[in-house]
Amino acid sequence: MNSKILKLPDVMVATALSRSSIYDFIKRGKFPAPIKLSERAVGWLASEVDGWLTQRAELRSVAGGASK
Q: What's the predicted TM-score (pTM) here?
């Protein structure tokens, strides 16, 4: 596996979500959980965040919200 680790501020920028929204999505099983990097640090695999964004875009397309 060769994937970049994103810290919370980077995930917030990439998704345009707030900290509380990200953790709410995680709690509901709708966003990738972070991986523990050390005693007090977590991060997200960039590939998982990218995958989540791709899924969201596909949902938009399925719902008819995207113009082709």
A: 0.84
